[in-house]
Protein backbone atom coordinates (compact mmCIF):
# COMPACT_ATOMS: atom_id res chain seq x y z
CA UNK A 1 0.00 0.00 0.00
CA UNK A 2 1.24 3.40 -0.98
CA UNK A 3 1.80 5.93 1.75
CA UNK A 4 1.75 9.71 1.37
CA UNK A 5 5.13 11.24 1.92
CA UNK A 6 5.50 12.89 5.27
CA UNK A 7 6.86 16.01 3.66
CA UNK A 8 3.57 16.86 1.91
CA UNK A 9 1.66 17.03 5.20
CA UNK A 10 4.19 19.32 6.63
CA UNK A 11 3.88 21.67 3.58
CA UNK A 12 -0.06 22.07 3.64
CA UNK A 13 -0.39 23.14 7.24
CA UNK A 14 1.46 26.42 6.94
CA UNK A 15 -0.59 27.39 3.78
CA UNK A 16 -3.95 27.05 5.55
CA UNK A 17 -2.79 29.20 8.43
CA UNK A 18 -1.67 31.92 6.05
CA UNK A 19 -5.16 32.12 4.49
CA UNK A 20 -6.89 32.43 7.86
CA UNK A 21 -4.46 35.09 8.90
CA UNK A 22 -5.11 37.11 5.73
CA UNK A 23 -8.90 36.93 6.20
CA UNK A 24 -8.50 38.02 9.79
CA UNK A 25 -6.53 41.08 8.70
CA UNK A 26 -9.25 42.15 6.12
CA UNK A 27 -12.15 42.29 8.63
CA UNK A 28 -12.83 45.82 9.99
CA UNK A 29 -12.45 46.31 13.65
CA UNK A 30 -15.63 46.01 15.69
CA UNK A 31 -17.60 49.29 15.86
CA UNK A 32 -17.91 50.83 19.23
CA UNK A 33 -21.37 51.46 20.68
CA UNK A 34 -20.64 55.20 20.64
CA UNK A 35 -19.93 55.09 16.88
CA UNK A 36 -23.17 53.22 16.17
CA UNK A 37 -25.06 55.77 18.21
CA UNK A 38 -23.40 58.69 16.38
CA UNK A 39 -24.20 57.21 12.97
CA UNK A 40 -27.80 56.67 13.90
CA UNK A 41 -28.09 60.25 15.19
CA UNK A 42 -26.69 61.56 11.91
CA UNK A 43 -29.21 59.60 9.88
CA UNK A 44 -32.02 60.73 12.20
CA UNK A 45 -30.95 64.38 11.86
CA UNK A 46 -31.04 64.16 8.06
CA UNK A 47 -34.51 62.71 8.19
CA UNK A 48 -35.63 65.23 10.81
CA UNK A 49 -34.42 68.14 8.68
CA UNK A 50 -36.15 66.72 5.63
CA UNK A 51 -39.37 65.96 7.48
CA UNK A 52 -39.66 68.85 9.95
CA UNK A 53 -38.13 71.62 7.85
CA UNK A 54 -37.99 70.60 4.20
CA UNK A 55 -41.48 69.15 3.83
CA UNK A 56 -43.28 72.10 5.51
CA UNK A 57 -41.35 74.59 3.37
CA UNK A 58 -42.08 72.56 0.25
CA UNK A 59 -45.76 72.29 1.18
CA UNK A 60 -46.05 76.00 1.94
CA UNK A 61 -44.34 77.06 -1.27
CA UNK A 62 -46.10 74.62 -3.60
CA UNK A 63 -49.61 74.43 -2.15
CA UNK A 64 -52.18 75.95 -4.50
CA UNK A 65 -54.17 78.68 -2.67
CA UNK A 66 -57.88 77.96 -2.79
CA UNK A 67 -60.06 80.58 -1.20
CA UNK A 68 -63.44 79.44 0.09
CA UNK A 69 -66.26 80.09 -2.35
CA UNK A 70 -70.01 80.05 -1.56
CA UNK A 71 -70.62 77.15 -3.94
CA UNK A 72 -74.18 76.49 -2.79
CA UNK A 73 -75.18 80.09 -3.34
CA UNK A 74 -73.45 80.15 -6.73
CA UNK A 75 -75.27 77.00 -7.85
CA UNK A 76 -78.56 78.40 -6.58
CA UNK A 77 -78.13 81.54 -8.67
CA UNK A 78 -77.16 79.48 -11.72
CA UNK A 79 -80.27 77.30 -11.40
CA UNK A 80 -82.55 80.30 -10.86
CA UNK A 81 -83.60 79.27 -7.35
CA UNK A 82 -82.45 82.41 -5.55
CA UNK A 83 -84.30 85.14 -7.42
CA UNK A 84 -87.51 84.84 -9.39
CA UNK A 85 -87.30 87.58 -11.99
CA UNK A 86 -90.45 89.66 -12.16
CA UNK A 87 -91.14 92.84 -14.10
CA UNK A 88 -94.03 94.88 -12.69
CA UNK A 89 -94.75 97.68 -15.17
CA UNK A 90 -96.70 100.53 -13.60
CA UNK A 91 -99.07 102.49 -15.83
CA UNK A 92 -100.55 105.76 -14.61
CA UNK A 93 -104.14 106.61 -15.54
CA UNK A 94 -104.69 110.36 -15.97
CA UNK A 95 -108.26 111.61 -16.53
CA UNK A 96 -108.61 115.21 -15.41
CA UNK A 97 -112.17 115.52 -16.81
CA UNK A 98 -113.49 112.56 -14.78
CA UNK A 99 -114.38 112.58 -11.13
CA UNK A 100 -112.40 110.54 -8.63
CA UNK A 101 -115.00 107.78 -8.29
CA UNK A 102 -115.28 107.23 -12.04
CA UNK A 103 -111.50 107.27 -12.44
CA UNK A 104 -111.07 104.71 -9.69
CA UNK A 105 -113.79 102.47 -11.13
CA UNK A 106 -112.22 102.72 -14.59
CA UNK A 107 -108.78 101.88 -13.24
CA UNK A 108 -110.12 98.87 -11.35
CA UNK A 109 -111.85 97.49 -14.40
CA UNK A 110 -108.70 97.98 -16.50
CA UNK A 111 -106.64 96.17 -13.87
CA UNK A 112 -109.09 93.30 -13.70
CA UNK A 113 -109.03 92.99 -17.48
CA UNK A 114 -105.22 92.96 -17.53
CA UNK A 115 -105.05 90.31 -14.81
CA UNK A 116 -107.55 88.19 -16.68
CA UNK A 117 -106.06 88.44 -20.16
CA UNK A 118 -102.33 88.77 -19.50
CA UNK A 119 -100.85 85.28 -19.16
CA UNK A 120 -97.20 86.27 -18.82
CA UNK A 121 -95.80 84.78 -15.57
CA UNK A 122 -93.12 87.45 -15.18
CA UNK A 123 -94.40 90.62 -16.86
CA UNK A 124 -97.35 92.22 -15.06
CA UNK A 125 -99.03 95.54 -15.84
CA UNK A 126 -100.17 97.47 -12.76
CA UNK A 127 -102.56 100.42 -13.16
CA UNK A 128 -102.11 103.44 -10.90
CA UNK A 129 -104.62 106.27 -10.67
CA UNK A 130 -103.60 109.90 -10.92
CA UNK A 131 -103.64 110.05 -7.11
CA UNK A 132 -100.86 107.43 -7.03
CA UNK A 133 -103.10 104.77 -5.54
CA UNK A 134 -103.23 101.28 -6.95
CA UNK A 135 -106.31 100.42 -8.94
CA UNK A 136 -106.91 97.14 -7.10
CA UNK A 137 -105.46 97.14 -3.62
CA UNK A 138 -106.28 93.49 -2.96
CA UNK A 139 -104.65 92.39 -6.21
CA UNK A 140 -101.57 94.47 -5.50
CA UNK A 141 -101.08 93.36 -1.92
CA UNK A 142 -98.27 91.07 -2.99
CA UNK A 143 -96.48 93.85 -4.86
CA UNK A 144 -94.41 96.80 -3.73
CA UNK A 145 -96.07 99.34 -1.47
CA UNK A 146 -96.66 102.44 -3.55
CA UNK A 147 -97.81 104.79 -0.83
CA UNK A 148 -94.93 107.19 -1.38
CA UNK A 149 -95.74 109.65 -4.17
CA UNK A 150 -92.13 110.15 -5.24
CA UNK A 151 -91.46 106.41 -5.29
CA UNK A 152 -94.52 105.76 -7.43
CA UNK A 153 -93.61 108.53 -9.84
CA UNK A 154 -90.16 107.03 -10.40
CA UNK A 155 -91.76 103.64 -11.13
CA UNK A 156 -94.24 104.81 -13.75
CA UNK A 157 -93.29 103.33 -17.12
CA UNK A 158 -96.17 104.73 -19.17
CA UNK A 159 -99.14 107.06 -18.82
CA UNK A 160 -102.63 106.57 -20.20
CA UNK A 161 -103.99 110.06 -20.81
CA UNK A 162 -107.73 110.25 -21.39
CA UNK A 163 -108.76 113.17 -23.59
CA UNK A 164 -112.42 114.17 -23.89
CA UNK A 165 -113.34 114.97 -27.48
CA UNK A 166 -116.98 114.97 -28.58
CA UNK A 167 -115.97 114.40 -32.21
CA UNK A 168 -115.02 110.80 -31.41
CA UNK A 169 -117.97 108.41 -31.32
CA UNK A 170 -115.62 105.53 -30.53
CA UNK A 171 -112.38 105.57 -28.51
CA UNK A 172 -109.18 106.10 -30.50
CA UNK A 173 -105.66 105.38 -29.20
CA UNK A 174 -102.58 107.34 -30.26
CA UNK A 175 -99.06 106.64 -28.99
CA UNK A 176 -96.89 109.72 -28.57
CA UNK A 177 -93.60 109.10 -30.45
CA UNK A 178 -91.35 111.04 -28.05
CA UNK A 179 -93.25 110.66 -24.81
CA UNK A 180 -94.22 107.53 -22.82
CA UNK A 181 -97.90 108.37 -23.17
CA UNK A 182 -100.84 106.52 -24.66
CA UNK A 183 -103.50 109.12 -25.48
CA UNK A 184 -107.09 107.86 -25.53
CA UNK A 185 -109.54 110.15 -27.31
CA UNK A 186 -113.18 109.43 -26.44
CA UNK A 187 -116.55 111.04 -26.26
CA UNK A 188 -118.55 111.72 -23.14
CA UNK A 189 -119.49 108.93 -20.74
CA UNK A 190 -123.25 109.11 -20.12
CA UNK A 191 -124.14 108.49 -16.50
CA UNK A 192 -127.25 106.57 -17.51
CA UNK A 193 -125.17 104.01 -19.42
CA UNK A 194 -123.16 101.96 -16.92
CA UNK A 195 -121.63 99.93 -19.73
CA UNK A 196 -119.85 103.00 -21.15
CA UNK A 197 -117.11 102.83 -18.50
CA UNK A 198 -116.77 99.07 -18.99
CA UNK A 199 -116.45 99.42 -22.77
CA UNK A 200 -113.80 102.12 -22.37
CA UNK A 201 -111.93 99.94 -19.86
CA UNK A 202 -111.94 97.00 -22.28
CA UNK A 203 -110.60 99.23 -25.05
CA UNK A 204 -107.79 100.59 -22.88
CA UNK A 205 -106.94 97.08 -21.70
CA UNK A 206 -106.54 95.85 -25.27
CA UNK A 207 -104.42 98.85 -26.23
CA UNK A 208 -102.11 98.37 -23.23
CA UNK A 209 -101.61 94.72 -24.07
CA UNK A 210 -100.78 95.67 -27.66
CA UNK A 211 -98.36 98.30 -26.39
CA UNK A 212 -96.32 95.82 -24.34
CA UNK A 213 -96.92 92.56 -26.18
CA UNK A 214 -93.48 92.44 -27.84
CA UNK A 215 -91.74 93.10 -24.53
CA UNK A 216 -93.77 90.41 -22.77
CA UNK A 217 -93.06 87.79 -25.42
CA UNK A 218 -89.37 88.73 -25.55
CA UNK A 219 -88.89 88.51 -21.77
CA UNK A 220 -90.81 85.23 -21.57
CA UNK A 221 -88.61 83.77 -24.28
CA UNK A 222 -85.42 85.20 -22.78
CA UNK A 223 -86.05 83.79 -19.30
CA UNK A 224 -88.15 80.69 -19.91
CA UNK A 225 -87.49 79.75 -23.53
CA UNK A 226 -91.21 79.96 -24.28
CA UNK A 227 -93.89 82.57 -24.82
CA UNK A 228 -97.16 83.20 -23.06
CA UNK A 229 -100.36 83.27 -25.11
CA UNK A 230 -102.41 86.45 -25.12
CA UNK A 231 -106.09 85.54 -25.22
CA UNK A 232 -107.30 88.91 -26.51
CA UNK A 233 -104.64 89.41 -29.18
CA UNK A 234 -105.38 86.79 -31.79
CA UNK A 235 -103.42 88.66 -34.47
CA UNK A 236 -100.15 88.49 -32.49
CA UNK A 237 -97.60 86.10 -33.99
CA UNK A 238 -95.28 85.08 -31.15
CA UNK A 239 -92.94 83.17 -33.44
CA UNK A 240 -92.32 86.24 -35.62
CA UNK A 241 -91.61 88.35 -32.54
CA UNK A 242 -89.14 85.75 -31.24
CA UNK A 243 -87.49 85.53 -34.65
CA UNK A 244 -87.21 89.30 -34.74
CA UNK A 245 -85.59 89.27 -31.30
CA UNK A 246 -83.03 86.70 -32.48
CA UNK A 247 -82.14 88.77 -35.53
CA UNK A 248 -81.92 91.89 -33.40
CA UNK A 249 -79.59 90.14 -30.96
CA UNK A 250 -77.35 88.91 -33.78
CA UNK A 251 -77.01 92.41 -35.22
CA UNK A 252 -76.49 94.22 -31.94
CA UNK A 253 -73.30 94.69 -29.97
CA UNK A 254 -72.92 93.06 -26.60
CA UNK A 255 -74.19 95.37 -23.90
CA UNK A 256 -71.67 97.85 -22.53
CA UNK A 257 -72.02 100.84 -20.24
CA UNK A 258 -70.06 102.97 -22.74
CA UNK A 259 -69.84 102.84 -26.53
CA UNK A 260 -67.45 104.76 -28.73
CA UNK A 261 -68.91 106.14 -31.97
CA UNK A 262 -66.54 106.82 -34.86
CA UNK A 263 -67.89 108.85 -37.78
CA UNK A 264 -65.60 108.67 -40.80
CA UNK A 265 -65.68 110.44 -44.16
CA UNK A 266 -63.75 108.62 -46.89
CA UNK A 267 -63.53 110.09 -50.36
CA UNK A 268 -62.30 108.48 -53.53
CA UNK A 269 -60.82 111.79 -54.69
CA UNK A 270 -59.83 115.16 -53.19
CA UNK A 271 -63.41 116.40 -52.77
CA UNK A 272 -65.12 116.89 -50.40
CA UNK A 273 -62.27 117.57 -48.02
CA UNK A 274 -64.27 118.60 -44.93
CA UNK A 275 -67.69 118.17 -43.36
CA UNK A 276 -69.65 119.97 -40.67
CA UNK A 277 -70.22 116.77 -38.77
CA UNK A 278 -70.14 118.28 -35.28
CA UNK A 279 -73.07 120.61 -35.96
CA UNK A 280 -74.99 117.81 -37.67
CA UNK A 281 -74.45 115.43 -34.74
CA UNK A 282 -75.44 118.08 -32.20
CA UNK A 283 -78.61 118.82 -34.14
CA UNK A 284 -79.82 115.41 -35.25
CA UNK A 285 -78.14 112.75 -33.07
CA UNK A 286 -77.38 114.27 -29.66
CA UNK A 287 -81.05 114.24 -28.51
CA UNK A 288 -81.21 110.51 -29.13
CA UNK A 289 -77.92 109.88 -27.32
CA UNK A 290 -79.15 111.96 -24.39
CA UNK A 291 -82.38 109.95 -24.14
CA UNK A 292 -80.31 106.77 -24.20
CA UNK A 293 -78.06 107.90 -21.34
CA UNK A 294 -79.97 105.84 -18.77
CA UNK A 295 -78.91 102.67 -20.61
CA UNK A 296 -75.42 103.51 -21.93
CA UNK A 297 -73.08 106.45 -22.44
CA UNK A 298 -71.47 107.43 -25.74
CA UNK A 299 -68.20 109.05 -26.76
CA UNK A 300 -67.81 110.44 -30.27
CA UNK A 301 -64.85 110.69 -32.64
CA UNK A 302 -64.67 111.90 -36.27
CA UNK A 303 -62.10 111.63 -39.04
CA UNK A 304 -61.62 112.41 -42.74
CA UNK A 305 -59.44 110.60 -45.31
CA UNK A 306 -58.96 111.62 -48.92
CA UNK A 307 -58.20 109.33 -51.86
CA UNK A 308 -59.54 106.30 -50.00
CA UNK A 309 -59.34 103.23 -52.22
CA UNK A 310 -61.78 100.37 -52.02
CA UNK A 311 -60.78 96.92 -50.87
CA UNK A 312 -58.98 94.87 -53.49
CA UNK A 313 -61.13 91.85 -52.65
CA UNK A 314 -64.24 93.44 -54.19
CA UNK A 315 -65.63 92.00 -57.41
CA UNK A 316 -67.10 95.41 -58.28
CA UNK A 317 -68.20 97.99 -58.67
CA UNK A 318 -69.47 97.18 -62.14
CA UNK A 319 -70.89 99.72 -64.54
CA UNK A 320 -74.51 99.13 -65.56
CA UNK A 321 -75.21 100.52 -69.03
CA UNK A 322 -78.98 100.44 -68.62
CA UNK A 323 -79.10 102.52 -65.44
CA UNK A 324 -75.89 104.46 -66.04
CA UNK A 325 -74.74 103.59 -62.53
CA UNK A 326 -71.92 101.74 -60.85
CA UNK A 327 -73.31 98.82 -58.91
CA UNK A 328 -72.10 96.82 -55.94
CA UNK A 329 -73.17 93.22 -55.50
CA UNK A 330 -74.56 92.11 -52.15
CA UNK A 331 -71.55 89.84 -51.68
CA UNK A 332 -69.28 92.91 -51.89
CA UNK A 333 -70.91 94.74 -48.99
CA UNK A 334 -69.12 92.82 -46.24
CA UNK A 335 -65.73 93.48 -47.90
CA UNK A 336 -66.40 97.09 -48.84
CA UNK A 337 -64.17 98.47 -46.08
CA UNK A 338 -60.47 98.61 -46.94
CA UNK A 339 -59.19 97.54 -43.53
CA UNK A 340 -55.56 97.72 -44.69
CA UNK A 341 -55.65 101.46 -45.49
CA UNK A 342 -58.71 102.90 -43.77
CA UNK A 343 -57.94 103.92 -40.15
CA UNK A 344 -60.75 102.12 -38.34
CA UNK A 345 -59.16 100.92 -35.12
CA UNK A 346 -61.65 99.15 -32.83
CA UNK A 347 -59.70 100.17 -29.70
CA UNK A 348 -59.99 103.95 -29.91
CA UNK A 349 -62.41 104.39 -27.01
CA UNK A 350 -62.96 102.80 -23.62
CA UNK A 351 -65.86 100.69 -24.84
CA UNK A 352 -66.79 98.84 -28.03
CA UNK A 353 -66.34 100.97 -31.14
CA UNK A 354 -69.29 101.43 -33.49
CA UNK A 355 -68.15 102.62 -36.90
CA UNK A 356 -70.19 104.83 -39.24
CA UNK A 357 -68.65 105.40 -42.65
CA UNK A 358 -69.75 107.95 -45.24
CA UNK A 359 -68.06 107.14 -48.55
CA UNK A 360 -67.92 109.57 -51.48
CA UNK A 361 -66.87 107.66 -54.62
CA UNK A 362 -64.57 109.23 -57.17
CA UNK A 363 -66.21 110.91 -60.20
CA UNK A 364 -65.13 107.96 -62.33
CA UNK A 365 -67.28 105.57 -60.24
CA UNK A 366 -70.26 107.77 -59.44
CA UNK A 367 -73.11 107.30 -58.88
CA UNK A 368 -72.67 104.03 -56.95
CA UNK A 369 -75.57 101.92 -55.66
CA UNK A 370 -76.31 98.40 -54.46
CA UNK A 371 -77.31 96.21 -57.39
CA UNK A 372 -80.08 94.18 -55.77
CA UNK A 373 -81.89 97.01 -53.99
CA UNK A 374 -80.67 100.24 -55.58
CA UNK A 375 -79.94 101.59 -52.09
CA UNK A 376 -76.86 103.38 -50.87
CA UNK A 377 -76.61 102.34 -47.21
CA UNK A 378 -76.29 99.05 -45.35
CA UNK A 379 -75.61 97.67 -41.90
CA UNK A 380 -72.69 95.46 -40.91
CA UNK A 381 -73.75 93.44 -37.82
CA UNK A 382 -71.70 94.10 -34.69
CA UNK A 383 -69.47 96.54 -36.57
CA UNK A 384 -71.35 99.60 -37.83
CA UNK A 385 -73.00 101.16 -40.84
CA UNK A 386 -71.92 102.40 -44.28
CA UNK A 387 -73.51 105.03 -46.51
CA UNK A 388 -72.48 106.06 -50.01
CA UNK A 389 -72.80 109.77 -50.86
CA UNK A 390 -73.18 110.12 -54.62
CA UNK A 391 -72.48 113.10 -56.89
CA UNK A 392 -75.66 114.95 -56.07
CA UNK A 393 -74.40 115.38 -52.52
CA UNK A 394 -70.66 114.80 -52.31
CA UNK A 395 -68.84 115.48 -55.55
CA UNK A 396 -70.26 118.97 -56.13
CA UNK A 397 -69.32 120.23 -52.65
CA UNK A 398 -65.92 120.93 -51.17
CA UNK A 399 -67.44 121.01 -47.69
CA UNK A 400 -70.49 119.02 -46.64
CA UNK A 401 -72.73 121.36 -44.65
CA UNK A 402 -75.03 120.48 -41.79
CA UNK A 403 -77.97 120.57 -44.20
CA UNK A 404 -76.23 118.13 -46.54
CA UNK A 405 -75.49 115.78 -43.66
CA UNK A 406 -79.00 115.71 -42.20
CA UNK A 407 -80.21 112.62 -44.14
CA UNK A 408 -76.84 110.97 -43.55
CA UNK A 409 -76.94 111.41 -39.78
CA UNK A 410 -80.58 110.32 -39.60
CA UNK A 411 -79.70 107.07 -41.37
CA UNK A 412 -76.79 106.63 -39.00
CA UNK A 413 -79.22 107.11 -36.09
CA UNK A 414 -81.46 104.34 -37.44
CA UNK A 415 -78.47 102.07 -37.84
CA UNK A 416 -77.36 102.88 -34.30
CA UNK A 417 -80.77 101.77 -33.01
CA UNK A 418 -80.22 98.36 -34.60
CA UNK A 419 -76.62 98.08 -33.41
CA UNK A 420 -77.55 98.67 -29.77
CA UNK A 421 -80.53 96.31 -29.98
CA UNK A 422 -83.38 98.78 -29.57
CA UNK A 423 -86.77 97.05 -30.03
CA UNK A 424 -88.91 98.01 -33.02
CA UNK A 425 -92.09 98.54 -31.05
CA UNK A 426 -93.97 100.24 -29.49
CA UNK A 427 -93.81 103.37 -31.66
CA UNK A 428 -92.61 105.49 -28.74
CA UNK A 429 -88.90 106.03 -28.22
CA UNK A 430 -89.08 106.36 -24.39
CA UNK A 431 -91.16 103.19 -24.16
CA UNK A 432 -88.70 101.31 -26.38
CA UNK A 433 -85.80 102.54 -24.23
CA UNK A 434 -87.51 101.41 -21.02
CA UNK A 435 -88.26 98.06 -22.66
CA UNK A 436 -84.60 97.74 -23.64
CA UNK A 437 -83.60 98.59 -20.07
CA UNK A 438 -85.65 95.71 -18.69
CA UNK A 439 -84.40 93.37 -21.40
CA UNK A 440 -80.75 94.26 -20.77
CA UNK A 441 -81.15 93.93 -16.99
CA UNK A 442 -82.63 90.45 -17.40
CA UNK A 443 -79.93 89.28 -19.82
CA UNK A 444 -77.12 90.60 -17.60
CA UNK A 445 -78.55 88.88 -14.53
CA UNK A 446 -78.81 85.62 -16.46
CA UNK A 447 -75.27 86.01 -17.78
CA UNK A 448 -73.78 86.73 -14.34
CA UNK A 449 -75.71 83.83 -12.77
CA UNK A 450 -74.57 81.46 -15.52
CA UNK A 451 -70.95 82.54 -15.03
CA UNK A 452 -71.21 81.84 -11.30
CA UNK A 453 -72.47 78.33 -12.07
CA UNK A 454 -69.63 77.72 -14.53
CA UNK A 455 -67.08 78.90 -11.97
CA UNK A 456 -68.56 76.60 -9.33
CA UNK A 457 -68.39 73.57 -11.62
CA UNK A 458 -64.84 74.47 -12.65
CA UNK A 459 -63.56 74.65 -9.07
CA UNK A 460 -65.14 71.31 -8.18
CA UNK A 461 -63.86 69.54 -11.28
CA UNK A 462 -60.30 70.92 -11.26
CA UNK A 463 -59.14 70.68 -7.68
CA UNK A 464 -55.58 71.68 -8.55
CA UNK A 465 -56.30 75.16 -9.85
CA UNK A 466 -55.64 78.19 -7.68
CA UNK A 467 -58.50 80.28 -6.31
CA UNK A 468 -57.03 83.61 -5.17
CA UNK A 469 -58.69 85.77 -2.56
CA UNK A 470 -59.64 88.37 -5.17
CA UNK A 471 -61.72 85.71 -6.95
CA UNK A 472 -63.67 85.04 -3.76
CA UNK A 473 -64.07 88.79 -3.30
CA UNK A 474 -65.40 89.17 -6.86
CA UNK A 475 -67.84 86.32 -6.28
CA UNK A 476 -69.14 87.97 -3.12
CA UNK A 477 -69.56 91.28 -4.96
CA UNK A 478 -71.36 89.50 -7.80
CA UNK A 479 -73.84 87.88 -5.43
CA UNK A 480 -74.40 91.16 -3.60
CA UNK A 481 -75.12 93.10 -6.78
CA UNK A 482 -77.32 90.31 -8.11
CA UNK A 483 -79.41 90.42 -4.95
CA UNK A 484 -79.65 94.19 -5.19
CA UNK A 485 -80.59 94.06 -8.87
CA UNK A 486 -83.26 91.46 -8.17
CA UNK A 487 -84.70 93.63 -5.40
CA UNK A 488 -84.81 96.65 -7.70
CA UNK A 489 -86.55 94.59 -10.38
CA UNK A 490 -89.32 93.62 -7.99
CA UNK A 491 -89.73 97.26 -7.00
CA UNK A 492 -89.83 98.50 -10.59
CA UNK A 493 -86.58 100.51 -10.38
CA UNK A 494 -85.18 99.29 -13.68
CA UNK A 495 -82.40 101.85 -14.16
CA UNK A 496 -80.90 100.91 -10.78
CA UNK A 497 -81.43 97.20 -11.53
CA UNK A 498 -79.58 97.56 -14.83
CA UNK A 499 -76.63 99.30 -13.15
CA UNK A 500 -76.27 96.61 -10.47
CA UNK A 501 -76.71 93.84 -13.05
CA UNK A 502 -73.94 95.38 -15.15
CA UNK A 503 -71.58 95.46 -12.16
CA UNK A 504 -72.49 91.88 -11.25
CA UNK A 505 -71.79 90.67 -14.78
CA UNK A 506 -68.43 92.47 -14.86
CA UNK A 507 -67.39 91.03 -11.47
CA UNK A 508 -68.44 87.53 -12.50
CA UNK A 509 -66.41 87.74 -15.71
CA UNK A 510 -63.43 89.06 -13.75
CA UNK A 511 -63.62 86.14 -11.33
CA UNK A 512 -63.99 83.50 -14.03
CA UNK A 513 -61.15 84.80 -16.19
CA UNK A 514 -58.68 85.48 -13.38
CA UNK A 515 -55.23 85.10 -15.05
CA UNK A 516 -53.56 83.23 -12.20
CA UNK A 517 -56.42 80.76 -12.07
CA UNK A 518 -56.73 80.20 -15.80
CA UNK A 519 -53.02 79.36 -16.07
CA UNK A 520 -53.38 76.45 -13.64
CA UNK A 521 -56.01 74.82 -15.84
CA UNK A 522 -53.31 73.97 -18.38
CA UNK A 523 -50.79 72.53 -15.81
CA UNK A 524 -51.85 68.91 -15.13
CA UNK A 525 -50.40 66.58 -12.51
CA UNK A 526 -48.20 64.82 -15.06
CA UNK A 527 -46.18 68.00 -15.45
CA UNK A 528 -45.64 68.17 -11.69
CA UNK A 529 -44.29 64.61 -11.62
CA UNK A 530 -41.90 65.45 -14.45
CA UNK A 531 -40.58 68.40 -12.43
CA UNK A 532 -40.27 66.77 -9.00
CA UNK A 533 -38.78 63.38 -9.90
CA UNK A 534 -35.45 64.66 -11.34
CA UNK A 535 -35.12 67.11 -8.45
CA UNK A 536 -36.06 64.97 -5.45
CA UNK A 537 -34.93 61.56 -6.73
CA UNK A 538 -31.12 62.02 -6.19
CA UNK A 539 -31.81 63.48 -2.73
CA UNK A 540 -34.25 60.83 -1.57
CA UNK A 541 -32.30 57.69 -2.65
CA UNK A 542 -29.31 58.14 -0.22
CA UNK A 543 -31.63 58.94 2.68
CA UNK A 544 -33.86 55.95 2.05
CA UNK A 545 -30.97 53.50 1.49
CA UNK A 546 -29.11 54.67 4.58
CA UNK A 547 -32.23 54.26 6.69
CA UNK A 548 -32.90 50.79 5.33
CA UNK A 549 -29.26 49.69 5.88
CA UNK A 550 -29.26 50.96 9.45
CA UNK A 551 -32.59 49.27 10.15
CA UNK A 552 -31.14 45.99 8.84
CA UNK A 553 -28.08 46.27 11.10
CA UNK A 554 -30.32 47.04 14.05
CA UNK A 555 -32.31 43.86 13.45
CA UNK A 556 -29.11 41.76 13.12
CA UNK A 557 -27.65 43.15 16.34
CA UNK A 558 -30.88 42.53 18.16
CA UNK A 559 -31.07 38.92 16.94
CA UNK A 560 -27.50 38.25 18.20
CA UNK A 561 -28.29 39.53 21.64
CA UNK A 562 -31.33 37.33 21.80
UniProtKB/TrEMBL annotation:
Compartment(s) where it occurs, according to its Swiss-Prot or TrEMBL record: Endoplasmic reticulum membrane
Q: Which UniProt keywords apply?
A: Endoplasmic reticulum, Glycoprotein, GPI-anchor biosynthesis, Membrane, Transmembrane, Transmembrane helix
Domain of life where this protein originates: Eukaryota
Q: Which residues form a coiled coil?
A: none
Report the GO terms under cellular component: GPI-anchor transamidase complex
Pathway(s) of this molecule = Glycolipid biosynthesis; glycosylphosphatidylinositol-anchor biosynthesis
* Record flagged with keyword Amino-acid biosynthesis: no
Signal peptide coordinates: none
Q: Mainly resides where? A: endoplasmic reticulum
Cell wall biogenesis/degradation: present as a keyword of the record? no
Name of the protein this chain belongs to: GPI transamidase component PIG-S
Native organism is: Aureobasidium namibiae CBS 147.97
Amino acid sequence: MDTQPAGSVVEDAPAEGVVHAALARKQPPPESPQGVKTRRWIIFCFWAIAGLLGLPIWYATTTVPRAALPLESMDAWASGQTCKLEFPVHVALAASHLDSATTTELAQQIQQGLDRQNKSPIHRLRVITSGHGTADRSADAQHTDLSSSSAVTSQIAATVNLVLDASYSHPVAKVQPFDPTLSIYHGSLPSNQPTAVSDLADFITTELLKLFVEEQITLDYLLNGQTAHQESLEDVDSSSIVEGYRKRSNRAFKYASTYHLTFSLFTGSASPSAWDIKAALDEYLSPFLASFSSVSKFSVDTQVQLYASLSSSLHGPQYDESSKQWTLMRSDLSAFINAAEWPLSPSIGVGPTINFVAYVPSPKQAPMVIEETGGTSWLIPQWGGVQILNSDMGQNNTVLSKHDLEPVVRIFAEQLESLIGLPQSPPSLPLRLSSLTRERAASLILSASSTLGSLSRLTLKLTSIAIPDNVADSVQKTIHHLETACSHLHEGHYDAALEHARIAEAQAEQAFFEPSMVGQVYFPDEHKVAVYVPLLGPMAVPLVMAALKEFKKFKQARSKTV
